[in-house]
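Please complete every field before forwarding. Incomplete forms are returned to the sender.

SECTION A: IDENTIFIERS
Entry label: holo-490
Bound molecule: magnesium ion
Molecule representation: SMILES string

SECTION B: INPUTS
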Amino acid sequence: MANLPGSRNISRLKKWQRLFVNRSLNMGNIKAIGFDMDHTLVVYNREAFEALAFRETLKKFIASGYPEELATLAFDPNLLIRGLLVDMDRGNVLKVDGHKYVKVAYHGHVRLAKDVRRSVYNIESFKAGSLLSVDTFFSLSEVQLFTEIVDYMARNPNKIQKSYREVYDDLRRFIDQSHADGSIKTHVLAHPEKFVRKDKYLALTLKQQIEAGKSLFLLTNSSWEYTNALMTYILGDESDEFTDWRQYFEYILVSSGKPGFFTGSQPFYEIQTKTGTVKPLAGPLAERSIYQGGNAKLFQQLTGIRGDEILFVGDHIYGDIIRSKHSVNWRTLLVIEELGTELVKLEALKRALSDIRSKMEEREIADEDLQVLHSKLRWQERLMAHSQANGEVKKAEYIGKEREKLATKSGRLATRLEKLDFEIKTMTEARAARVHPVWGELMKVGLERSRFADQVADYACLYTSAVSNLRFYSPFKRFSSVHDMLAHDF
Ligand SMILES: [Mg+2]
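SECTION C: PREDICTED COMPLEX
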């Protein structure tokens, strides 16, 4: 077996090579590891892939009668990040913190002023459920196109006589058409090298798990034809031993209809790859055969593997992770690809974070001092009133003077606090802007957790930036979570 690093080496790993633990997990108890395909095993060259989806969808807008000027709209792979919410009725894109408070809002390319944002979203309790969540990479190009059209509508009133909601409905329809009519897939399959990035450690990573006795399976919503072409491209010739990508996986489940796969009761169908015909499954799942449809409960029954013995690896917080954990109690590893580049940036910004933290400590001390001064002032006020009432004129005068001194001191301290608040805010914003100029960190809003971070913490047992990071850990590793500790344990 390939050499596996010990724990000493793990501590030397860079952050973007690590697995992070939300819930303790003993890999020794895991018998099967399932993998999603798109954006999990198959890593797309995002700029090329999403630009393609953007352009193909735009063509359909213009063909259906939208202004031809829209053809000049440009794709920007970095405009949006995952975890944002889309208010389709108002045409706004929002970043929300873990308490569902809208912290940043954009209408097209225009940032909403603080008072507008507050009056629209934050006065009454805000229902994130009524909004669309930007969960997948596919939805990044979709929502960017929506943002561009909203921006166009704001700049050119009356040129598009539709509500934002109607524009979004059209957008959804055109995207579905682009997928259904093969506009996107045809390009990808003709030149996978342009759209897909090979991970040279993927084959080794999978083999380590196989050699450790784990059953691997593929569980994808993509069709057999698309799956076969892409998996052949990424794993077809990566090993002398495995000359067909199918040799890595005991079970291959395509067109699975996740998240319905985890909650529904659809039967399995076997695909006859030579003829392309499909027949209902009779009997057990045969190894290396290709199945479509199906459901998680039946999969467990047929393979004899319990839900908590399965680790599922996917990139979709809802379709892969939340449902699989909730409905069938599978253990989960979320792949957050963009965390890789973000962690590199954050590593370079460590100093900026410690500067912010020391300013915050300074602020906390100044704030405590101010509270003490305020209570002293109140005490002196009462003392002075008491002396005056008793006719102790001199004593009252003396207290009055002392009080003035304290009041001046407290005024100075209040000004200092305001200055510190401003400095902390400026430093925090500058740091976030170096991660992403508009939206800041994926998992944070300012220094607090973002809604996306909360979902990751609640549903993913583990998370990492790439599947191949598994190779740094033993297939029997006990991952322990600091979340099992309480605040007083530190
Ligand atoms: Mg996926």
